[in-house]
Amino acid sequence: MVQSYDKIRASRIFHDLLRLLQFLSAVISLGLFSHRLRQIHRLERRTTTSNGAVEGILAAAVLYTLTLLLMRCLLRNKSVPKLLRWLLIALDLAFMGAFIAVAVLTRPKGELASSPGVIQALAVS
User: Are 37 and 51 a contacting pair, CB within 8 Å?
Assistant: First the structure.
């Protein structure tokens, strides 16, 4: 019985650490991309719609993971309804797809998130 409790506790700690890593990843990504976007705007005085989309996806990911962390703390010892669990799984999968979209929109030489001149100018400075 004690060994089973230790496994459950270790699983919860591991889950909490993964959620914290997910949150930190989203916050750092948003911060770095916002800084990059500010530099692009300073150099060219314009941004593309894909830049706004990337920033919106990253901001939504920060809000989502922050909400999950708060829910995890508030519902620590309570049972979570099955429908809510399935909804959270669906949202996790949706945000996986969103981060794939961020990777595609910000890929080098893809010219989707910024113009090539800005990338060269940023590399020099």
Answer: yes
**25-79 tens-digit pLDDT:** 889 988 888 888 888 778 877 766 777 777 888 888 888 888 888 887 777 767 7
The model carries a pTM of 0.66
Could you give the CA distance from residue 111 to residue 29 in angstroms, rounded to a whole number?
19
The label of the residue with tokens 């901001």 reads 59
- Identity at 17, one-letter amino acid code: L
Which tokens is 47 given?
């941004």
Question: Residue with structure tokens 């005085």?
Answer: 45
Q: Report DSSP state, residue 79.
A: P
d(CA 44, CA 40): 6
Residue 9 CA to residue 7 CA, distance in Å, equals 5
* Type of residue found at 76: R
What's the CA gap between 50 and 8, in Å, rounded?
A: 42
